[in-house]
Amino acid sequence: EAQVTQNPRYLITVTGKKLTVTCSQNMNHEYMSWYRQDPGLGLRQIYYSMNVEVTDKGDVPEGYKVSRKEKRNFPLILESPSPNQTSLYFCASSDRTGRSNQPQHFGDGTRLSIL
Amino acid sequence: GESVGLHLPTLSVQEGDNSIINCAYSNSASDYFIWYKQESGKGPQFIIDIRSNMDKRQGQRVTVLLNKTVKHLSLQIAATQPGDSAVYFCAEGGATNKLIFGTGTLLAVQP
After folding, report:
1. Interface residue A37 vs chain B (CB under 8 A)
2. Residue B4: which of A4, A39, A99 has the nearest Cβ?
3. Do B72 and B55 meet the contact criterion of CB atoms below 8 Å apart?
4. Quick check: B7 and A104 CB within 8 A?
5. Distances from the Cα of A102 to the Cαs of A69, A95, B68, B93, in angstroms?
6. Could you report the per-residue pLDDT of A66-88, keeping only the tens digit for each?
7. How confident is the model at residue A55 (pLDDT cuts 50, 70, 90)?
8. CA distance to A45, B32, B51, B72, per residue, from B101 (Å)
9. What's the angle, vertex CA A91, arms to CA B47 and CA B84, rounded to 5?
10. 3-state class of A85 per DSSP?
């Protein structure tokens, strides 16, 4: 089954404790992206990757890191999480060049709570 | 449960009725549009897309209409069912290298 898999689905942690949210897709997609979703603000892009070893900042990259060492994986790293990073996070991938004229396929989300 | 639905406009319909969800997009240079459905506890699910060289496209029980003159997009759901209850949002693309997502509309189907 074609899917985007995120782990963990839920995490409660404390300020400053480094964490990683993993994302894996099995569709051989070149383009992958991370979003956060907050009430009333819609989906905001954090980082994206057009291909292996190519990553770029989205609209809200501060406080986050990503890496793209393999085509299927795109982990999101919070080196020193803060309470304002409490949010619902989604990983997405799309086909071909990742141009914005293709549908993106989303994972089921990761709910992060930073205390 | 998810808090995605807070602060969203809500459309309440009776089961079996047709639903129309509207979206205004911002960039006149956008040439690609998508509708997503997001159920509680899940990620956005692709429903249907349309390119700017069309003004209507139909899927299974869904129709998307595009009015480029007024930068308006709508999603019509025929014979709405309880399983259609979700947040629906549109996205526009093509003008830049990313999709721009709307904030969504909560569809509540009354039995």
Report:
1. yes
2. A39
3. no
4. no
5. 23, 7, 19, 8
6. 999 999 999 999 999 999 999 99
7. very high
8. 10, 12, 16, 14
9. 30
10. helix
Q: Are A17 and A81 in contact (CB under 8 A)?
A: yes
Are the C-beta atoms of A95 and A27 separated by less than 8 Å? yes
Q: Which of A32, A106, A21 is nearest to A65 (CA)?
A: A21
CB contact under 8 A, B98 and A108: no
Q: Which two tokens stand for residue B109?
A: 């189907």
- Contact by Cβ (8 Å): A77, A66: yes
- Specify the residue for token string 């619902």: A88
CB of B89 within 8 Å of any CB in chain A? Answer: yes
Which residues pair with residue B95 across a beta bridge?
Answer: none
Distance CA A48, CA A102 (A): 15
Q: Is A69 on the interface with B (CB under 8 A)?
A: no
Q: From chain B, pick out residues whose CB is under 8 angstroms from the CB of A90.
A: 43-44
Cβ proximity of A86 and A114 under 8 Å: yes
Residues in B 54-83 with any Cβ partner in A closer than 8 A: none
What average pLDDT does range A57-64 have in this prediction? 95
Structure tokens at A3: 């899917």
